Amino acid sequence: MSELSPELVASLEAIVGKDRVLSDADSKAHYGGDWTRVYRPAPCAVVLPGSIEQVQEVVRLAARENLAVVPSGGRTGLSAGAVAYRGELVIALDRLNSISDFNPVERSVRCGAGVITEQLQNFAQEQGLFYPVDFASAGSSQIGGNISTNAGGIKVIRHGMTRDWVAGLKLVTGTGELLDLNRGLMKNNAGYDLRQLVIGAEGTLGIVVEATMRLARPPQDPVVLVLGTPDMASVMEVLEVYQKRMDLQAFEFFSELALQKVVEHQGLQRPFESPTEFYALLEFEQRSEADMELAMELFEHCVEQGWVIDGVISQSVAQAESLWRLREDISETIARWTPYKNDISTTVSKVPAFLAEVESVVNGAYPDFEIVWFGHIGDGNVHLNVLKPDALPKAEFQQRCGEVSRWVFEIVQRYGGSVSAEHGVGLLKKDYLHYSRSALEVDLMRQIKRAFDPAGIMNPGKIFDL
């Protein structure tokens, strides 16, 4: 529905308060979309509940009225998974932002779904601990959204995805019931782990309202290396050499074009004078002088083998942060070109051939398109970004990129990869889900959704259609 009836508005206001039901155009646009710009947000209204009980009441009302709902977190998604474009009711979780019940023995803490990722990182630091899931949008993304998309980021090679840090969660189902899943247990083999089923479900099974998150010890004196390599195969050789001898905190890569854009538009310095085709960024802990000596020994070996042309190593925390910006500022930098973005993955060993084949197909069809590569190559996840030429109308660019998607996903399928490594499926990739999931898998997903959400009101149309 495009607008709520006065009776429904009054019912919602009775649940969350009069000032917490928003229907003005600015609020609908703000809360009804995410970082994608393909679909125009068009919710019927926005509600901001202040408690789990209020979320339950809103969902029960929506179920009775057969009103579709879209949960909204930090709205930083890149697959249109949080876009309300067909008159849905947006349930924004910003007010569920409390942190409580810190347990130093379990190294765990309870977070409302609206807690900002960086807020949890800072809380962990204040306790002398570390929350390792990190990415460029940590300053605005929310824990509930991270869980719903199983967010990854730059530390996956060492610390895994969001799902590895969720000790328990509370979920409001499509009927308004509250599930308390796993309750923080380390060991729990009493039947199916529904917690893991909910993680990455993009709000299609229910609304994550609270989570118990695990924390870790902080890394000791992290050191950053940026190495210039002549080709992607050399990046993989560097990864193999370092992984054999060291526990890496991160292993990222980016292309020369990505570096050029960041240096030009962010006012940063090149890491060294020699331009190379690709760059690898490594982070490791310097627990003793022996760690630094080993890192330099491996660097010299890679240079001797021709896998590394030049490199730089951080000498301070400030320099380490500056080197990280070369990688972390890429997404923000290239946003001005309205890029076609694709978040894809395959097994780590297949990445060089995989990337070369994708690049060849796109370059062959559209030689006037610039391609920016970066990603978490240590876990097989690469980000393809095709920049829109300034003279090309946006609509035509998007239409031509639709053809690119099909070609790219055919390659993904041939390599046994995923059409979405960490950003989810949402609206943007649901037509391509069959490249990564069999018909039987998708049918089982539909059956699972019906069990959690029998009326089909929870974020409908995302991932697949019922």
From TrEMBL:
Q: What is its EC number?
A: 1.1.99.39
| Catalyzed chemical reaction(s) | (R)-2-hydroxyglutarate + A = 2-oxoglutarate + AH2
The cofactors named for this UniProt entry are: FAD
Q: Known SUPFAM superfamilies for this protein? A: FAD-binding/transporter-associated domain-like (SSF56176), FAD-linked oxidases, C-terminal domain (SSF55103)
InterPro entries tied to this protein: FAD-bd_oxidored_4_C, FAD-bd_PCMH, FAD-bd_PCMH-like_sf, FAD-bd_PCMH_sub1, FAD-bd_PCMH_sub2, FAD-linked_Oxase-like_C, FAD-oxidored/transferase_4, Oxid_FAD_bind_N
UniProt keywords, alphabetically: FAD, Flavoprotein, Metal-binding, Oxidoreductase, Zinc
One GO biological process term is: respiratory electron transport chain
Please give the Pfam families that the UniProt record associates with this protein: FAD-oxidase_C, FAD_binding_4
Q: Name one GO molecular function term.
A: FAD binding
Say which domain of life the source belongs to: Bacteria
Q: Specify the enzyme's EC class, one word.
A: oxidoreductase
**Which positions fall inside the FAD-binding PCMH-type domain?**
39-218
Quaternary structure (record): Homodimer.
Family statement drawn from the similarity comment of this UniProt entry: Belongs to the FAD-binding oxidoreductase/transferase type 4 family.
This protein is called what?
D-2-hydroxyglutarate dehydrogenase
